[in-house]
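Ticket #4471: complex job returned nothing on first submit. Input attached below:
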Amino acid sequence: MAPVLEPYFKQVDSMADSFIDRLRKAVAIPSISADAAHRPAVVKMADFLENELTTLGAHVERRYLGEQHPGLDLPPVLLGRYGDDPKKRSILVYGHYDVQPALKEDGWATDPFTLHVDEKDRMFGRGSTDDKGPVLGWINAIEAHKKAGIEFPVNLLMCFEGMEESGSEGLDNLIKQEAQVFFKDVDAVCISDNYWLGAEKPCLTYGLRGVSYFGIEVSGPGQDLHSGVYGGTVTEPMTDLINVMSTLVNNKGRILIPGIYDQVAPVTPEEEALYADIAFTMQDLYDGIGSKTAIFDDTKSTLMARWRNPSLSLHGVEGAFSAEGAKTVIPAKVIGKFSIRTVPDMDPEKVEKLVQQHVEWEFAKLNSNNTFKFHPLHAGKWWVSSPKHWNFTAAAKAVEQVWGVKPDMTREGGSIPVTLTFEQQTGKNVLLLPMGSSTDAAHSINEKLDKKNYIQGTKMLGAYLHFVAEEPITE
Amino acid sequence: MAPVLEPYFKQVDSMADSFIDRLRKAVAIPSISADAAHRPAVVKMADFLENELTTLGAHVERRYLGEQHPGLDLPPVLLGRYGDDPKKRSILVYGHYDVQPALKEDGWATDPFTLHVDEKDRMFGRGSTDDKGPVLGWINAIEAHKKAGIEFPVNLLMCFEGMEESGSEGLDNLIKQEAQVFFKDVDAVCISDNYWLGAEKPCLTYGLRGVSYFGIEVSGPGQDLHSGVYGGTVTEPMTDLINVMSTLVNNKGRILIPGIYDQVAPVTPEEEALYADIAFTMQDLYDGIGSKTAIFDDTKSTLMARWRNPSLSLHGVEGAFSAEGAKTVIPAKVIGKFSIRTVPDMDPEKVEKLVQQHVEWEFAKLNSNNTFKFHPLHAGKWWVSSPKHWNFTAAAKAVEQVWGVKPDMTREGGSIPVTLTFEQQTGKNVLLLPMGSSTDAAHSINEKLDKKNYIQGTKMLGAYLHFVAEEPITE
Ligand SMILES: [Zn+2]
Ligand SMILES: [Zn+2]
Ligand SMILES: [Zn+2]
Ligand SMILES: [Zn+2]
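Support reply: We reran it on our side without changes. The output follows.
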């Protein structure tokens, strides 16, 4: 072990209870960004973090992003700096202090805003793993260094936002503005806001799929009609919509839109070799989906489908009858929703054009007198980094020090848009360094963070800062 | 004019204001059956009718149908009798005293529960045309006879229910029980609870389509999934469902389920000749649907499609994303809803079997590892009567006396299930004799009944009773 890490790790262990107490205080603040009524609690959570940081000697600036809508301020982004030594590297870390909604009635076993530690040392509470635990991990690391009298190895820049669960409104713009100001000395970026692939083995994440979301609208009648009176006499928008939706994808996951696969990067032998070693079993997938209705029965195909191949999901229909029971309605205007998860080297603009051409062509084939509209709803690009970058090498060493195992190098199927923004705006490497595991149920009831992941995770974040401070810059 | 009708019509004209006042009082009672909180108002409406009837010397029995659910009584059915002369024919009339929900905020120009008579003598108010106006029409007819000292031509049996807008729970059973008791002397049945085909010309209605409603369910994952994490690796229920739904009907109204058309009665030359004279224009259809997105461009094909051919409508999907915006969900269990409007000589059980065979076959072709379930949700049979029956002949004479024109003999695309129940349980002819017009906006905002339709309609109902009392029994 690097000599300096031993006292740091000891210090973290000795402070475990106070770190858990810090998490307890944070979980108790219901900083739900989706609900305007909870906005004061989101701001209170910003106050809490600001106070923790300034107490430890960090410099914190609150940045206001304006109003979400008239009369409702967006929560502040906290820009923090701990250390200002030009001889040290500057590492920018990102996290979010807002949380998903949670109500006891949703099925939580205990109050979601009261941290509950069970006999297995699982710490239940909304935000425990997403993303208060990781954010506090950085603060814990600062405090442990201070208490142990160990010099902090880097200048730590922090960007903590309060709207991540609600679309990070205004953040991209702020990052752009600050790229050459607050973030100008940044050497590398680290985001701790995702999860291990499984329950046991740590990972570093170097890739994310993008997402392009579409609506296709078919309309005709001036208002919803009664199917008794008008069935058989009016061209029904639902019939057209379902026909077009049925041409997008098959149930083996194959996208049927011409040209989509032309843009997908071929698999290299090097990539191919990666999948064998990943700690992932089909049972992990079955546990995740709650069934055995998988498309593939091997882990390699499954991981490739999740990480590096595009997929298309039909999400639903807006404007049609969607409740329980039986309603004899002919919906007047229906909007089918679907999205494509995109991968290297797909160009979102090209994807949009291919989708538009396809759906318009399929609608034209129907020879309908209804009206068709294509709505590209949003598009976020995929992101892929090099797992051999020194930022990743440093993190891998930290993981091995703390967990005694080399991390899996993983990608993810979902998107974390801020990743790409940081990479593009700072021009620096971005690393995703998860603290929690796949069993943490972020966004679900009974969200938790294992005590082990929190305390070892605090060690890991600190160790990462030591390694990244000294890692030879190789690319 | 039959001599007795002249003084009756004069009496009705002279009492017009008090009849409108009766409608005003009835509209003021918000007897919304769909809303448990309004149940006392539904009962109050029953009290109102009972009082009106008994004041005029009718005998009224309240029949309780039990609880809708624990703690909520169904509204009473009022069984009334006016006259008990074994030498007279007994005519059973049906109507309902409950109404659709209505809120000013829905877009009503005036308060829905305050009768508003505008400068064109349109009487706006919830229930004005559906179905309080027609129900009061019978009461008005009794009163006018009484006041004018004209002998009432028939024994009038009445069945007025308070749950029609909410599925007529318990009514079928009551009709069955009373068929040989309260209704045992009935010679013919008349229902006034529908509308003219257009705005100007009266009609008698002798046919209704049936409806068979289905749900098809596809399920797989144990819970809704995130499309980023699982898209491409799990067999998505929506993909299977949309595929099966796309095989049911085309946008020209053609049902694609094999065997469905084999059961449809062929068109006879006699029927074919009927369509030419019906007062119906394509503009009437366009006005009804609020667009020109019709399947056919001629009235004959349109009326045949509405009245005598089956149709299939896709209503929507339960369990999928149906709100505004973009949600990246893979729904775990989705239920597609559709219904088939059925016509002579389709057998609902045969229809159900054909539908089940088809959807199960189409799902099997998908070779999916998801689970498929077929749910027949409800089925009501079509009804067709003979427009040459003496009950209709009598009504046609009444229309001609009052409106100066022979009524169109029409069918309807929707279903009024109680029609078939009365026919089957009493074994007598059932006539649909509308008071209001197609422009009345039943079930919509700004529901109205024209003063002319209400006052002339009261004359028509009374005249019908005179003609039906003496019409030669020819079939
Ligand atoms: Zn998060
Ligand atoms: Zn989250
Ligand atoms: Zn009605
Ligand atoms: Zn109605």
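The radius of gyration of chain A is 24 Å. Closing as resolved unless it happens again.
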